[in-house]
Write a structure and sequence with these properties.
It contains nine helices and no strands. The protein is mainly α. It has two domains: 92 residues, RNA polymerase sigma factor, region 2, helix turn helix motif (Rna Polymerase Sigma Factor, Chain: A); 69 residues, Winged helix-like DNA-binding domain superfamily/Winged helix DNA-binding domain (Arc Repressor Mutant, subunit A), CATH 1.10.10.10. 70% of the residues lie in helices and 0% in strands.
Length: 190
């Protein structure tokens, strides 16, 4: 693995090798980015095997469309966008895209104003994974990937107000989940 990583030390060299369909360059890209991209895919589908399938399809798309990478932005960012699009494509095929009337599950959740410091990042990601698919998708796109509501609306073929509503509901449900988690945490300390 160390030898492979040293073959293409600069991103420019790596991209040139990928454009020539060099299997060593493809392996290096996979080894370098696969764990992060698997985590990204998992956040959208919440199923390890499906996430791995999406990630592999994403890498095939990266290798097949490498000529479209303009080298103007981050290579990893370009890969991330492809992986997000692959995950969204999978969700669309499953017909799990959020709708305005998707779920009233979070409709009457009070707005909790705090989140205790006892919750670590991994536990928070576990809570996010428990969100309904539509809430989780919009939350991931907005809060983690940094997409604007207009972009989310376009990606998911929903309205901007639906995106905002789904995000609001996701946050409210997450706040309730965090509060419930904290209450359980405090009780276990007693």
């Amino acid at each position: 693995m160390g030898r492979i990583l040293s073959l293409f030390s600069h991103e420019v060299q790596l991209v040139k090798a990928l454009r020539k369909q060099d299997p060593k360059a493809q392996r290096q890209v996979y080894e370098k980015y696969s764990s992060r991209m698997l985590g990204l895919c998992f956040r959208y589908v919440n199923d390890e095997m499906v996430a791995e399938d999406i990630m592999i399809e994403g890498f095939l798309r990266v290798f097949g469309k490498i000529d479209q990478f303009s080298s103007e932005g981050s290579f990893e960012g370009w890969i991330r966008r492809i992986m997000v699009n692959e995950a969204l494509g999978h969700i669309r095929k499953q017909k799990r895209i959020p709708e305005d009337a998707m779920s009233d599950e979070a409709e009457n959740i009070p707005d909790y104003a705090y989140a205790d410091q006892n919750l670590n990042a991994e536990e928070l990601l576990d809570l996010i994974a428990e969100l309904p698919a539509g809430y989780r998708t919009v939350f991931n796109l907005y809060a983690i990937e940094g997409y604007a509501h207009g972009e989310i609306a376009e990606l998911l073929a929903i309205t901007e107000s639906t995106s905002k509503s789904q995000l609001h509901r996701a946050r409210a449900l997450l706040q309730k989940m965090v509060s419930d988690w904290e209450n359980g945490f405090k009780k276990s300390k007693l």
